[in-house]
Amino acid sequence: MLVIRLRRLGAKKRPFFRIVVTESGAPRDSRAVDALGFYDPRSQPEALQLDRNRLAYWIEKGARPSNTIRTLIARHPAPPETPAGASDSEQGAA
């Protein structure tokens, strides 16, 4: 079974995480099937970059997000999408 979870990187006492798709029985920092983004808890404000299209693809294929990933996604909602034809000046005037 595939899971979406955090993979720890960074130096001692300076964690940095990649959000990856991996086998559920594999060790935390083992080889990943796909990398979806990163999470930096030490930056102010904390940074989460996530390819939401790939996330939706893997969830559709049966990958299950960990509790931590579900919490991060809920805490950092996707930015609102702008219409394809609208420019920045049109949105400021509205």
Q: Considering the protein shown, what is the CATH homologous superfamily?
A: Ribosomal protein S16
**Helical region count?**
3
Structural class by secondary-structure content = alpha+beta
Number of strands: 5
Radius of gyration: 16 Å
Reported by name, the CATH topology is S16 Ribosomal Protein, Chain: A
Distance between the terminal alpha carbons, to the nearest Å? 48 Å
Mean pLDDT: 88
- With strands numbered from the N-terminus, the spatial order across the biggest sheet is 4-3-2-1-5
- Approximate strand percentage: 35-45%
The poorly predicted ranges are: none
Q: How many strands, which pairing sense, and closed or not: the largest β-sheet?
A: 5 strands, mixed
Q: What's the domain count?
A: 1
The appropriate CATH architecture is 2-Layer Sandwich
Helix proportion: 25-40%
> What string, H for helix and E for strand, traces the elements in order?
EEEEHEHH
